[in-house]
Design brief:
The longest helix is centred in the N-terminal third of the chain and has 24 residues. This protein has a single domain, classed as Creatinase/methionine aminopeptidase superfamily (Creatine Amidinohydrolase). The protein has a six-stranded antiparallel beta sheet. Strands 1, 2, 4 and 5 form a four-stranded antiparallel beta sheet that branches. The protein is an alpha+beta fold. About 30% of the residues lie in helices and about 25% in strands.
Length: about 270
């Protein structure tokens, strides 16, 4: 999501509503399992997107990316971004090859509730630099999930995420952020993966019922990005690789419930 801060308060969800979101989360997790299994040398990205669209159709789920408004409506149910492509890559005739680093991002609405997740997947054997970038991206998301059980405000979590990335010598993308999610894919609040002056006045309290799509984007080189002429595909300005990972996370009395996990997963609050 584009960075756009506002002062609207987030809409908190009940345990029942979070349970309904989990049903959508299971389907998104299944979709990304298909993406991971199909992500092999020789396959076209459009073939993977079609498999995800078929899954959603079988379950009567609404794919939330296809037709998403923009200068040109987004044409697919999955964003598939390769190597220097950060996010919003459009599936097409591109053939994946050994050594590629591919980001899959998809979301659906099921019975009125939404879930959103992204993974980064190596194609066969990738370079040690790409492997390390992938590890740091995943570590950044894990840190966010853990810190959500320990901190009282989002800025504290974002700072911890930023430190993981920068200590590794990589860069946090600042032009795009995560978001609240519920009955709509994009709800308040905006969820940056970094701390900046203009963000502090829009910081928010971490409280039970908050559901966030947390999605760090990490660049091997500099943070700057540009959008291609297709009006969607975002690439690193220096054309070095990037990774993107995301989970829909719900804050509950027990801890952080991972709505889009492959299996049931709650990260428990630390014992006081």
């Amino acid at each position: 999501m584009l960075k756009f801060f506002n002062n609207h308060k987030p809409e908190l969800k009940s345990i029942r509503e979070i349970g309904l979101m989990r049903e959508a989360g299971k389907l998104v997790a299944e979709a990304l399992k298909i993406c991971r299994e199909m992500c092999k040398p020789g396959i076209k990205t459009v073939e993977i997107d079609r498999a995800v669209e078929d899954l959603y159709a079988r379950h009567k789920a609404v794919p939330l990316f296809k037709g998403y408004k923009g200068r040109v409506p987004f044409p697919a149910v999955t964003c598939i971004s390769v190597n220097e492509q950060v996010v919003h890559g459009i599936p097409g005739q591109r053939i994946l090859k050994e050594g590629d680093l591919v980001k899959f991002d998809t979301a659906c609405q099921l019975n009125g509730w939404c879930a959103d997740r992204a993974i980064s997947v190596p194609v066969g054997e990738v370079s040690s630099e790409k492997r390390r970038l992938l590890e740091i991206g995943e570590q950044t998301l894990r840190v966010a999930m853990l810190e959500l059980t320990r901190k009282s405000r989002w800025s504290e979590v974002a700072l911890a995420m930023q430190r993981v990335v920068e200590l590794a010598g990589f860069s946090v993308v600042t032009q795009y952020v995560g978001h609240g999610i519920g009955r709509k894919m994009h709800e308040n609040p905006q969820v940056p993966n970094f701390v900046a002056k203009d963000m502090k006045k829009h910081d928010f309290k971490l409280e039970e019922g908050l559901v966030l799509a947390v999605e760090p984007m990490v660049n091997m080189g500099k943070a700057e990005t540009v959008t291609l002429r297709d009006h969607w595909t975002v690439v690193t300005r220096d054309l070095l690789p990037s990774v993107h990972v995301e989970h829909t996370l719900a804050l509950t009395s027990a801890g952080v419930y991972v709505v889009t996990a492959d299996e049931e997963l709650t990260i428990a609050k630390p014992q006081v």
